[in-house]
Design a protein that fits this description.
It is built from four helices and eight strands; from the N terminus they run βββααβββββαα. The chain is an alpha+beta fold and about 110 residues long. The chain has a single domain, classed as 2-Layer Sandwich (NE0471 N-terminal domain-like), CATH 3.30.2020. The strands form three sheets. A three-stranded antiparallel sheet has the order 1-2-3. Strands 6-7-8 form a three-stranded antiparallel sheet. Strands 4-5 form a two-stranded antiparallel ribbon. A hairpin with a 2-residue loop joins β4 and β5. The longest helix is centred in the last third of the chain and has 10 residues. Bound molecules: zinc ion (2 copies).
Length: about 110
């Protein structure tokens, strides 16, 4: 599974197309809130889990996408209006954020709802 195409749908949403024919939107807010970098996600070092301070959602530019660059053919790197650009989003991670009806339904089924 690889990302085939990424485009900005609206000022708050991206549209991703995958090489298996799947496509769906991801809101910039979710994309940023699920940033996989150590600073956002926390990191387990020597069995101690570092929990980052809760994200300040009012930082100017936090949900403003500035750039998207492919990384080594397996991931994307996004840069944000507040200067953050450390998150490497693997295809799997991006796909897990897909917000099409089908994926949302699968995810709520997985949660047993
Ligand atoms: Zn981050
Ligand atoms: Zn989907």
């Amino acid at each position: 599974m690889r990302l085939k195409q990424l485009k900005q749908n609206t000022s708050t949403e991206l549209q991703l197309s995958w090489d298996d024919g799947h496509s769906g939107p991801i809101s910039l807010q979710n994309l940023r809130d699920f940033c996989p970098c150590a600073g956002c996600k926390g990191e387990t070092v020597l069995f101690r889990t570092y929990v980052p301070p809760s994200p300040t959602t009012n930082t100017p530019g936090r949900y403003e996408l500035k750039g998207a660059d492919p990384v080594g053919g397996y991931a994307m790197k996004f840069s944000w209006g507040d200067g953050h650009d450390l998150g490497i989003y693997t295809w799997e991670h991006l796909r897990s954020l897909c917000e099409c009806k089908e994926c949302l339904k699968n995810r709520s089924n997985a949660l047993g709802q």
